[in-house]
Design brief:
It contains 32 helices and five strands. By secondary structure, the protein is mostly helical. Among the domains are: 74 residues, no CATH class; 240 residues, Rossmann fold (3-Layer(aba) Sandwich). Strands 2-3-1-4-5 form a five-stranded parallel sheet, sandwiched between helices. Helix 11 runs antiparallel to helix 12. The longest helix has 21 residues.
């Protein structure tokens, strides 16, 4: 958002109003609304104009929108009280007067900071509230506001500390506890977040926001069955809008999908789209089932929505990837590539990934983790063989390997766990754009006691994901290939499996996949994905050199060609007996959260290995960028 342009337009409109040039003022505000439709003070200024035009209904509409977006606008509440009294609406006038009275009781700096925060001017809001807290550092409302500002500026650690201090001072401050639960969710501390949501539900068991946070925490913990009924309960309880219905149907469908109830999931995705026809993520979720085939009418609806002028940016991106998959399934590869290319370009423009940052991180990791480093720490860490880390590039076949191993009676599949990456961030600081460790050399400071404590912490924090009580469990976070050194340091008896797929198929698989939130931002450009694949190979070669034999490499193509031989090799590496159930992995009933969830519920096939060849006319630059990785990826 260009705040200077926004504020200049508001100042221009205010000046025009002061000179009684009201039509011009309203035209300027219309331009401002296109620039920033959520800017509360533009609606307040529009209300001023309509008051001067003696159009009370229009003034009320504008002012109500202003206070909906920003409840801390004293002038808007003041005008609303007067307008309602003039029209004889005593109830609304009284309510407006009460809201104004509450604001007048608050310190002016807090009101100003709240208003700035509501309009997205975070740096100025933070400056104002920090100045106030220097005078009144125990004001829990001001501390909560500072925490919310820091949260919106992605400083989640600081926001968590601030909110914890608020709750220490005021344990019954429920809005602050709800913020605390949200910050915990954003840091993927799902168990703590669920605990906070459960605390809030103890005070108000029917509160819709509390129930949603509880459901989100359950999903984060991989506990999907309970949220199916929870979202149904929320749908039965008078949702506030079509948008809320769309969200709830989407969330319920996701849970149904993960638990293998595909047809019910499809019904809920469709219900979500009935409530909001241009809801890109619902269209994409249908395509992401991988087995769903769109009808002609559905493709026409997606095309119309994607090119609509009012569609939100992220909805457009989701629609592009959904259309890419829908047209791929029909063999219309040229049109399919058009949408994949467009979706990738839009998503890359919105991201913050920089290949040079990742490459610099890899160089620092290689300098920090040497063979001598590990030799000097050979007996460190937690002596427990339970964890099995499956890592590598996304779309490499890792979900298939997880499903195969989780079909063994002694192995439990969990999900892509985030603990290892979080520990690396805590110990080494994390790059704000890509989350990779900035100072891996700091791990040299760890003592033997520290390493053991981290191993114990990992086993304790992941216990909530282990519901079957099996002796081995899988962490399938692909990005852990960055952290092989840390894993070996704290869990030296764990199993590490690098799942590798040939580069053209793997990279194309990433280019056609839209990942959630800010995950895998390297995957939205041909040069970026090729550089990342080569970087992955380089780092894995380093781990093989400094920790020979530590990582078992499994090629996806070998698994397809010789399933039983590959299974026996993996089980032997883990020191587990062969079980035939691993060969009929598609019959195993378990929750699978990744994009391959429906594919691994089918028998193994070769179809996916050569999909990229349909797009060969558009992938010449990918082949060039991969270079010698095309032939050396298996080394």
């Amino acid at each position: 958002m260009n705040f200077s342009e926004r504020d200049a337009l508001l100042e221009e409109a205010t000046d025009l109003r002061s000179r009684q040039r009201l039509p011009e003022a309203l035209a300027t505000l219309a331009r401002l609304q296109i620039l920033d439709p959520l800017f509360s003070r533009l609606y307040q200024e529009r209300g001023h104009c309509h008051v001067l035009l003696r159009d009370a209904p229009a003034a009320i509409d504008a002012l109500c929108e202003a206070v909906r977006l920003n409840p801390t606008l004293p002038a808007s509440w003041d005008m609303l009280e007067q307008l309602y009294r003039m029209l004889g609406d005593t109830a609304q006038a009284t309510m407006s007067a009460q809201r104004l009275a509450i604001l007048r009781q608050l310190p002016p700096q807090v009101v100003v900071a709240n208003s700035l925060f509501a309009d997205g001017d975070l740096p100025t809001a933070e400056e104002v509230i920090r100045d106030y807290l220097r005078e009144d550092g125990d004001n829990v409302g001001a501390l909560r506001l500072l925490a919310r500002i820091r949260q919106d500026r992605d400083a989640f650690d600081e926001a968590e500390v601030l909110l914890k201090s608020v709750l220490d001072r005021a344990p019954d401050y429920h809005p602050a506890r709800l913020d605390y639960a949200m910050v915990l969710l954003q840091q993927q501390k799902h168990l703590q977040a669920r605990r906070e949501a459960r605390h809030l539900l103890g005070h108000d068991p029917d509160n819709r926001e509390y129930l949603k946070h509880y459901g989100a925490a359950c999903v984060g913990l991989g506990d999907h069955e309970p949220v199916i009924d929870l979202y149904e309960r929320l749908l039965a309880g008078q949702p506030q809008s079509g948008a809320e219905v769309a969200d709830l149907r989407l969330w319920r469908a996701n849970a149904l999908k993960v638990t293998g109830r595909q047809q019910e999931a499809v019904a809920d995705y469709r219900a979500s789209l009935t409530a909001r026809p241009d809801y890109g993520v619902a269209w994409f979720s249908l395509s992401n089932l991988k087995t769903y085939r769109f009808a002609d009418g559905e493709i026409a609806r997606m095309r119309a929505a994607e090119c609509g002028p009012a569609v939100q940016d992220m909805d457009r991106i989701y629609l592009c990837f959904a259309l890419g998959k829908a047209l791929e399934d029909r063999g219309d590869y040229a049109s399919s590539w058009h949408y994949y290319e467009r979706g990738n370009a839009l998503r890359r423009a919105a991201g913050r990934y920089r290949p040079d940052v990742a490459e610099s991180c890899a160089r620092r990791i290689k300098r920090a983790f040497t063979a001598e480093f590990f030799a000097a720490r050979a007996d460190w860490g937690m002596d427990d063989p339970a964890p099995i880390f499956i890592l590598g590039m996304p779309r490499s076949g890792s979900t298939l390997i997880e499903q195969i191993l989780a079909s063994h009676s002694r192995v439990e599949g969990t999900q892509e766990l985030t603990e290892i990456g979080r520990y690396a961030g805590e110990l080494c600081d994390a790059d704000p754009d890509c989350g990779l460790p900035l100072h891996p050399e700091r791990l040299r400071r760890l003592t033997a006691e520290d390493a053991r404590a981290l191993g114990e912490r990992f086993l304790a924090e992941t216990r909530t994901h282990r519901r079957l009580g099996r002796p081995f469990f899988i962490d399938k976070m692909p990005n852990n290939f960055w952290h092989v050194g840390l894993i070996n340091l704290i869990l030296p008896r764990s199993t590490i499996i690098d799942v590798r797929r040939e580069p053209m198929g793997c990279c194309f698989g990433n280019l056609k996949q839209l990942f959630g939130t800010t995950n895998q931002e390297f995957s939205y450009g041909i040069d970026d994905i090729a550089r990342h694949y080569r970087l992955y190979l380089d780092l894995m070669r380093h781990w093989d050199q400094v920790l020979p034999g530590r990582v078992l490499r499994v090629r996806c193509e070998d698994v397809v060609e010789d399933l039983e031989g590959s299974v026996r090799r993996m089980l032997e590496h883990i020191a587990l007996p062969f079980e035939p159930a691993c060969l009929s992995f598609h019959e195993t009933r378990r929750s699978v959260r990744t994009p391959s969830s429906e594919q691994v519920r089918q028998p193994i096939g070769r179809e996916g290995l050569a999909q990229w060849q349909h797009y060969a006319p558009w992938l010449a630059s990918l082949r060039d960028a991969l270079g010698d990785a095309l032939t050396g990826y298996g080394d």
